[in-house]
Please model this.
Amino acid sequence: MSLVISDEFLQTAHISEVDLKLEIAILLFQQEKITLDTASQFVGISQLEFQRILGSRKISIHYGIEDFRQDFNTIQANGLTQAQLKPTQVEILQRIEQRRTFSPEQHQLPNTFTLIQEDRAR
Model:
C-alpha cells in the first residue's frame, strides 16, 4: 500500500517528510502496534537512535514477547547457536557492573549537573 501526502499538506503542517515518518512510527510504537525494530526500519534509522529519540521524549521502551521473538529469530537467522548465545559468568558480572556504573555521557545523555544548570537558566 502506498500513501501519498502532498507537499502542500507538509508545508501547512510545518513538518518534513522525514519528521512525519518519525511521528507516525512513534505513535504506532506507543500504541504497541509495531515493534521497536519495525519502527526504526520504517524511519530508516538504527534501533539505538530510535531509542534515543524515545528517551528524549520520555517515552518508555516496552520490550515484549514479540520483540524477544523477533530478536531471537534474527539471531538464529545469523547462524548463532544456543551455546554462543549463553553468556559466561564473567560476562554476566561485567553486565551487572556496567549497570551499576551507568554513565550518561556514554549514551550521549546529559548528566544531572547539566540538567540542573539548564533548569536554573530557565
Q: What stands out?
A: Residues 87-122 form one domain.
